[in-house]
Specification:
alpha+beta, 638 residues, Sig_transdc_His_kin_sub3_dim/P, membrane, Sensor_HK_TwoCompSys, disordered C terminus, kinase, 12% strand
Length: 638
């Protein structure tokens, strides 16, 4: 018994040592993996700051618009702290990564101090930068490309280290399995000498530990051991369970972060594509509802009269009740979460909707909502609205939910600011086009009332003088007749110019007769398909007329076309125009084409779109779509 006990003690001691080493290896690997995630996240943030500085400086250099300096200034302010954090985290990995991080940090600081700040400062002070614009762009791209290359090398090395940590964890798990297996086999041999108590106390717990280690190695993080043993075996069971719980928590956290980042990328893609704010609002509400596990999500815009208007909403699929409809207005008066946000401009919570008295507060109470969290939407420094996540669960929403909502509210603010900028640009274009049309009308009116009438009078006087010439003065009579005919030709030319500036037939009869008259004057045959039976807004008719005139002129003068087809359709919501020719094809007019630029400005000022189709050997087609009511638009940021 003494010899068996000694052998058993030696065997179990060795097994426990191997298991302890495996546990330590697993914990160390988990720690290193966590550090790897932190340093990769810091690298991503620092790289994003560099890109924001580059894009902000480049946008300001092109437009001189201070709005592009806001992200640049924010990135510049955050760069020192992010650089220090990146160095600190890299130093915890190893010396080589710390050196790479120092190199990246110095390069980022150099890019800021030696290039970006001098460039922006020179532009703000109205001085010529030290580098010409083209060289400045090239130098900035070169520096950023070098930084991205350094980031890629850093991330690649860190990924290799992470893989190495995982392999080390697998080795430790295999050692633990081997040790447990050896202990099990030896325990069976020694079971003839020991009592069943020793079997139950040692063999079975060790076997459970080995099975759990294998399950953890395969990624089954939900397994647990029953904590029924005494002494060191019981401690081992508790440690294994603690380790499994820690790994499972970390895994869920990483999955949640990945899911949130994917949702943010989807929303950011919509904002970058400049889709309508309504579509962005709906997407943000849906993504937030799924990420936060809410029952309802509402996005509201604050109105000046203490009202709020719902611009986006979402409800969980299992909820039978509908969310507040988009476009509905609710009172802010009374006790509510949204009124608190409107008053303070800061995130707020409400955990008892039994006392809510505002419009949406009463709606939430009738739907069984128990708590809600709201974050403000800020557009260019002003409070625009609020995003609220409601839940009917008895437990209050977890801490930190406000921070998870802020990224989405910032994207909503960006989408609204972009929509406002596009609306201002469209209004400016419309004013320019209107001024141009008014100038044409004034010139046409001046020509008609002034020069044309004067030429008619002079022609009549010459004809009268011709009839009063005495007989025998044939030379004088011929000269007067020739002069009168010349005046008549000049008058016809002037009338043609007047019709080109602003044809009277367009003002009197509309698009159908005006385009027909334009087709009759064209130098090539023109086929017309005009599905228009009513009058439209004057700006719209003038725009369509000049688009057709420009397209016909391009086809005859530049494309050497022998045939032009014009199709005009008027629907309930928009006008569709298609001008085709059989001229020289294969080359699409570029952005610098003056004719295309003029057409785009006129069409986009009315809220329309311009498309050019020019396939090889198939002529050219100009496709225009213009809404019938370009002045009607939604209020996104008033």
């Amino acid at each position: 018994m003494i010899i068996a006990t000694t052998l058993f003690a030696i065997l179990m001691a060795a097994t426990f040592l191997l298991l302890a080493g495996a546990i330590a290896g697993l914990r160390h690997a988990a720690t290193l993996s966590g550090r790897s995630e932190d340093v990769l996240a810091a690298s991503n943030r620092l790289e994003r700051l560099i890109v924001e500085m580059q894009s902000g400086a480049r946008g300001y250099e092109i437009t001189r618009n201070e709005i592009f300096l806001r992200p640049w200034k924010a990135a510049r302010a955050a760069l020192p702290a992010e650089t220090a954090e990146f160095r600190r985290l890299a130093a915890e990995i190893n010396t080589d990564q710390a050196k790479r991080a120092d190199t990246i940090a110095r390069a980022a600081t150099s890019y800021l101090d030696d290039f970006s700040v001098p460039l922006v400062t020179a532009l703000q002070e109205g001085r010529q930068p030290s580098l010409p614009p083209a060289q400045a762009v090239s130098e900035g791209q070169r520096r950023v490309a070098a930084l991205r290359s350094d980031f890629d090398r850093f991330v690649s090395v860190q990924s290799s280290l992470t893989t190495r940590y995982e392999q080390r964890s697998m080795k430790a798990s295999r050692r633990a399995m081997a040790a447990a297996g050896a202990a099990a086999v030896s325990s069976i041999a020694l079971a003839l000498l020991f009592t069943s108590y020793l079997t139950r106390a040692l063999v079975r717990p060790v076997r459970r530990a080995s099975i759990m280690a294998a399950d953890l190695a395969r990624g089954e993080l939900g397994v647990r051991m029953p904590e029924t043993s005494l002494g060191e075996i019981g401690l081992l069971e508790r440690r294994f369970n603690t380790m499994a719980h820690s790994l499972e928590t970390s895994h869920h956290k990483l999955c949640r972060i990945a899911e949130e980042q994917a949702a943010l990328r989807r929303v950011a893609t919509l904002v970058a594509r400049a889709v309508s704010p309504h579509e962005t609002f709906g997407t943000v509400a849906a993504e937030l509802g799924r990420i936060l596990g809410a029952d309802f999500v509402v996005i509201s815009r604050f109105e000046p009269d203490r009202m709020e208007t719902v611009v986006g909403s979402w409800k969980a699929e299992e909820r039978a009740e509908a969310a507040p409809p988009v476009g509905s207005s609710w009172s802010l008066e009374g006790r509510s979460l949204e009124s608190s946000v409107a008053r303070t401009g800061r995130p707020a919570r409400m955990t008892d909707y039994q006392r809510a008295t505002s419009g949406i507060g009463v709606w939430a109470r009738t739907r069984g909502v128990r708590s809600g969290t709201g974050c403000p939407v800020v557009v260019e420094g002003r409070l625009w609205g609020v995003v609220i996540a409601f839940t009917t669960a008895e437990e209050p929403q977890p801490e930190g939910i406000e921070a998870r909502m802020i990224d989405y509210t910032e994207l909503v603010g960006t989408a609204i600011a972009n929509a406002e900028s596009r609306a201002k640009l469209t209004a400016a274009r419309a004013r320019l086009v209107a001024a141009s049309d008014e100038t044409r009308r004034r010139i046409e009116r001046d020509l008609h009332d002034g020069a044309q009438q004067r030429l008619v009078s002079l022609g009549l006087e010459l004809r009268a003088a011709e009839t009063s010439v005495p007989d025998g003065q044939s030379v004088l009579s011929e000269r007067l007749s020739t002069t009168a005919e010349g005046l008549s030709d000049v008058l016809e030319d002037l009338q043609e110019i007047s019709r080109g500036l602003h044809p009277a037939i367009l003002s009197k009869g509309g698009l159908r007769p005006a385009i027909k008259a334009l087709a009759r004057r064209a130098g090539v045959p023109v086929e017309l398909d005009l599905n228009v039976d009513r009058r439209f807004d004057e700006r719209l008719e003038v725009a369509v007329y000049y688009i057709v005139a420009e397209a016909v002129a391009n086809a005859t003068e530049h494309a050497s076309a022998s045939f032009v087809r014009i199709r005009l359709d008027a629907g309930d919501d928009e006008i569709g125009l298609r001008v085709e020719d059989d001229g020289n094809a294969g080359t699409t007019p570029g952005p610098g084409d003056p004719g295309i630029i003029g057409l785009k400005d006129r069409v986009e000022a009315l809220g329309g779109t311009v498309g050019v189709e020019s396939p090889s050997a198939a002529g050219t087609a100009l496709v225009i779509r213009i809404p019938l009511w370009p002045g009607r638009s939604s209020r996104y940021g008033a």
